[in-house]
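Dear colleagues,

I hope this message finds you well. In preparation for our joint manuscript, I am sending the Platelet endothelial cell adhesion molecule isoform X2 (Salmo salar) sequence together with its predicted structure, so that both groups work from identical material. I would be grateful if you could confirm receipt.
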Amino acid sequence: MSASSVKNKLPVKWGFLDKEEGEKMTTLRTTVVVLLGASVLAASVQGASVPGASVLGRPLLYGPSTALQKTVEEFQCEVESSSKEVSILYQLFREGDRSKTLGFYSALSGEMANFPLFITASYEGYMVCVASVQNNTVIQPTVSERHHLRVVDPVNGAEVVVQSGSVEFYEGKPLSLRCNITKGNHVSYQWLVDGKPLPLSPLHNQTQELFIDSMVPQDSGEYTCVATNQLNFTKIYSSRSTAKVIKVKELVSEPDLLFLVLKERDGTYFALVTCQSLKGTPPITFSLYSRSEFISTETVDERFARFSIPVVLDLHMGFLQCQAENGDRVVYGQWTAMHVVSVGGAVTMHYDTDVGENFSIVGLRFYCSVERGTFPQYRWFLNGTVLEGRGDFYWVENQPEQSILLLSVGRSSAGTYHCDVSNSFDGTTVISSEERYIDKEVLNHLPTMVVAVVFGCFLFLVTLVTTCCFIGLLYRKRQCLVEKSTLDLKLGLEMHNIMVSDEDEGFLGHPCIMVAEDDNEDEEEYMEDEGMVRAARIIDSDQEEVESTDEWLQLQQELKKTLEDEIPEKSF
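The corresponding structure tokens are as follows:
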């Protein structure tokens, strides 16, 4: 706000006066000052005193806490307990500085003092009101509580300044920006990149200065600052700068070396060497070196450069290396051997199958490769016709080491296939593979040998199972016979033992026939029962000890022989 506009429009309290009312207010203030001077002079002449008073109450200071610069604001000061008969002089000072009066007012009849002030930046801070009784030095002056005034100058003229001078940086360099303003105080700052607030980060110190320690390409964009200050919660002033375009350049990455061999019309060959970097902001300087010497250099606005050097087939010509440079960074690529080998040797072709849901072959993958060759060129043929690219039932995919033919098995794909290989830079030498006939019925037909092997395995399993079952039946029958013979043998052996043990007690006759005396029938039954029990126990124990059928038969024969020898002797 200019001085002329302030004169034309003077604020009083919270409203504003037009020019005529402002002039009237100025005249009124002049009249008040004249009357105040006259009253002070009259009081000094009269030497009036304040009857019955020795202490003056503490004044109270009122006024706004925030004000715009170059506006008029009113402040009030009063002593509540003062008498209307007492003339009190009110003076307004900055705290700690009584050398300069901001305003004064003489209250002749106990009214409140008014201080209309034209606000300047120097008024900011604490101010106090001093009240004193005129023409009376006995009563000491009193001072009000301090009152803080915040002077706001609306912000204007925001501008972004690059402190380093340049707006283009290579990644890794620091960035320092400053938001300058032509006027304003109590200002807060916000930084925008491409119209969006810059995220808060320890690396991004957002005050009047913006500092980024290490730039990356993603930091490129239009930088804008917004300066803001406010009078209160509703009156806000802001100033937005014009955008400053900052460009962060990428440092060049390690270059790769690629080369392609071509043939001249005179029959000689040359290599077209390409030095290429995946990253880097142009312009970039590429250089080509061999082990022994510098070959060439070129500065381009691309990320690659090409060089031409002569080559001899099947001769190792050493190693080459690319160098790339932009900004203050120089990087080197890997050493690459310059050795071009013509195609030669055998060409092999084989395939893999793809099986469908019904276990039938529905697709093939043919592979064709050559024994040697740096730049082989492959071609596929069906019945002498070249297959290129992609067709209705095939797809050709060439790789550095081999070529692949994807084939859908069907009626249209039936025929004889083969591939040939030649140099990509010279088609004079061609090597072909063996031919192979492909048909859907042939592929899905089982060979006779496979059928014979499967049937033979099945027949062998059936024979093996039948033999095992027959042997099991024979073994079970023989086991039953052995168990029966063993039981008979054990019974006979037990009866023989009983006969021998009872001979001393008067038993005679055949061991299977037991004769007892008339007067001992109960003892005969007891001995017979005891013998049966013993025979059963012997059978159980002996059956656990004997493990094979041959041992049982041998034991049976020996027992029979013993019985035959002993029974005749006992009969005599």
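For the figure legend, we might mention the following. Residues 448-502 form the longest helix (55 residues). The longest strand covers residues 344-355.

With kind regards,
E.M.
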